[in-house]
Amino acid sequence: MLECDDSDITAVSFRLRAAGLLAGIALPVAAAALPPPDTTPLLRVSGDIAHPNIGEEAHIDRSLFASLPRQTLDTTTVVTDGVSHFEGVLMRDLLDAVGAQGDEVVATALNDYIIDIPMQDFHDYDVLLADTMDGETLTPRDKGPLWIVYPRDDHSELQDIRYDYRWVWQLEQLEIR
Amino acid sequence: MVWRRRPAYALPALAMIAFAGLLTFSLVRLIQVEQDMRSNVSENMLWVITQAQVASHRLDEEVHRLTLGDQAARPALRYDVLTSRLVLLDEGPQRRYLAALGFAERVDDAFERLAAIEPQLDAIAPDAVAAADSIHAELKPLMQDLNRIANAVMVEEWETTGERLDRHRDSTLQVIASVVGLMLCGLALGYLLIGALRQRRAAQQALAEHRDQLEVEVERRTQDLEAARHRVAAAIDTAPDAFAAFDTDGRLALVNPKLIQMLPEASRALPLGCSLEHALAVLRECDDNGELEDAANDPRERTLRCDLHITELGWLQLTMSASRDGGHVMRLADITPYKQATEALQRALQRERGVSDFYRSFAAMVSHQFRTPLAVIDSGLQRLQRRGERLGGEERQQRYRRLRDSVAHMTRLVGSSLTAARLDGGQIEAASTRCDLRQLAEQCCRLHGEASGTSRIHLSPGDDTPIMAYCDPVLVEQILTNLLSNALKYSPDDSAVEVCLGHDEASIYCAVRDHGRGIDAADQAQLFERFFRSSNATDQPGIGLGLNIARHLARIQHGDIDVHSRPGTGTTFRLLLPHADTAAIETGEAQ
């Protein structure tokens, strides 16, 4: 058990360092400030961020979203049947891109769903901000435009209702605190 | 005992099996409850349906707000949100849940109504009341359906929760019952354990008591044994006989003081631990009886019993026997007094036997030898009786002389027979002493010459130095008289009889030599036998006792007589006697 814990801790710290490194590499690129959005933003990020592009907010439009590293994730969900294939960007990458510096992320959905998510989650797990599901772009009439997806099948501790409520779909805004 | 022992093990085993069974059952039940509590599909359902309801009301609200002129109202977004809510209701788990409640068709109806609303959204504008009413007409039944579904879901969830609580209560009760059972099993096991511990303690106490008793018993027995050993040791120490004990390896283990007292020299050569063979060898060294020499070569094989004669101590009886454990015990008893008594008795018996032999021998000789001279005398007297007057004086005198000769012969015969019989009966013993044989021979020759009126006897001259022999002078005189008379008798009247003395290493001798007819070699061997008469001596009167007696007399003085004879030349008899010095030393006479 101790060894398991140790390895977990090592894995976590490694992941933290990797994240820092990634941020360090990404920063000079992004540090020049995010380009202003051309189209209607997919997502608005406000609060404690280093790189706003509209006022004090960072507006992520489709082109900016597409410029972030693409990731995929296969997992089950509590509201659908079977394993679904998601594509999108890691929450971690997105938050690094906007220079988020807080402990908590307040996620707000189009349907007025508001949830506080600890920043730690995005460092501990490869949480995906998905814009497609099973190859189809998510729309506001379904779970779109963006859906926070946890790697539920890879970590048994995530198969818990206390994580299930953090799966925010129709994500509209993030506030870093 | 067997049927009692089985429950002793069966009961704890049963309790343990029950314990394990109850524990397993409780754990299974608890795990089931835990898993049951995790399945929470339905719990989220009420939220989902309520949010759909809210979304429908927000759409209605936004439509009316825009109609009233609120430009911030965004009915299209609310439409999208309501759509997404209905999509969610239509997806896998949610769809199945609602289908189970019988609301699948109503969800489908809701999508149809949404589809009907979508084209009308563009017509919404401030003051476009008709369009708003049209959308409301579609939305109202949708909202009523959602309300009904929400009610049903709530009821369903409460029912499900109630059932689950029932199950959990049942499971909890079962677990409680199991725990009570476990407690009882634990109590039973504890009771059994305490009982077993008590029994063990009791057994240990009993064992300790038994051990104490045994120790006391052993101590008592040891004391008894010690006392017995002391008694035996005292008995051995104070015994009149000497004891030596050998262990199973044949090593000397014990010697009593009497042995050291009895054989101080030998006991010094017998240290404790020496072997049985060595002990016997030491005793053999002391012994001059020789009986022990003949004893078994391997004394361990059997028991031993023999008499030892130890110089300066006397007679000891050695008894050796094997003890039961394989060792040996040797006993030496002083039997000198018994031995002396035995010897005295032996001598007395010998004497009695000699007397008896004397009478028997004398009677035999008388009956055998006396008939002939008596017959001669009788016939001579008869002749004198018949023809006495007719015989001349000279002839009668001659016959009387012959009769007297016969009587004299008989007298000699009686004398000789008595001597022979005495010898046979062991009645004659030599009173040996240191004698000058020369003096004896001179005296004998002189007396014999005078008695027989002859001068034929010549004693060879010597240097007057005494020749000392160890002998009985009376017996020597008797022997020499016999030898001289034989020499005179069996040699011509004019021939000389020579007597000479001498000595060699072994003995002193006196030789009597005649120049007579000699003795046949064949007869020489039998010459000393009783009543033997040589074939060429029959013309002389004689009874065949003289030489026999002479040799006997010589031998009882540890001497002998030998003969050298050649027919026609003469015969030499030699009387051999022991040297005075050597014989005296041998018999202890010199002291």
Automatic annotation (TrEMBL), chain A:
A Pfam family it matches: Oxidored_molyb
Protein name: Oxidoreductase molybdopterin-binding domain-containing protein
Domain Oxidoreductase molybdopterin-binding: 82-151
Organism of this sequence: Halomonas salipaludis
